[in-house]
Amino acid sequence: MVFNNVYEMLTPPAVIKKSWLVEYFDGSALNNRWVLTTNVGTATETMVDTVDEGHEVKSGTITNDDANLDLGDIHHYDFNGCVCIWIYRRVAPGEADVGFYNTSAMAQSTGAQIALMQDRSSNTFKKLLTGGTSFGAGVDTSIAVDTSFHRIKIDILASNVNGYLNGILEATSTASQPTIKMQPCRRNVRRVSGQPGQSNCRYAEAYNT
Fold first, then answer.
1. How confident is the model over 24-36, as pLDDT tens digits?
2. Which CATH architecture has domain 24-208?
3. 24 DSSP assignment
4. Please, are residues 5 and 205 in contact by the beta-carbon 8 Å criterion?
5. Potential cystine with 171: which of 93, 94, 139, 159 (Cβ 3.0-4.6 Å)?
6. Domain residues of the chain, as ranges?
7. How many whole angstroms separate alpha carbon 162 and alpha carbon 153?
8. Across-strand partners of 151?
9. What is the pLDDT of residue 62?
């Protein structure tokens, strides 16, 4: 059986999709529903002209430069019941995160209103990050940081946030959780001297539960 997306593979046909977004990051240009933002420094985005590398987002190379891709602060997704799925990889030494946040500014300045899977080259393991009115906590997964593609799923529930890697539940956070509506996002931060925060993404999906 052929499925059009990950949602249809995992969800019974009778379940109605709510605020359903699917993005394949293919073609010659990025769909204009996505907005590139930066709080510090410069940011660039481009479709990668290499098979299966998808779409690139890259920050500058000065301390704390960031590059973020989101829906332009359009918040369709409920803080106590939404899911996002990403297929992405960190490319350069530094930090590359995917998941949900409310705004890139809050994520950058205080770590607030986030539910992200973080790959930071200075860490040992990929980590689930959550935050509500302030930064909450980071929960390590068992998967080492790397530059390979992985399937990430963030599931925000009423009392916890679950983080999946390649179909396996790897981390659960019951600490500080988002308290306002969210948008799917990619977040890249320069953490290593002379290196940008950079990631490539093949696929994104988001929906309310």
1. 999 999 999 999 9
2. Sandwich (2.60)
3. -
4. yes
5. 139
6. 24-208
7. 8
8. 87
9. 96
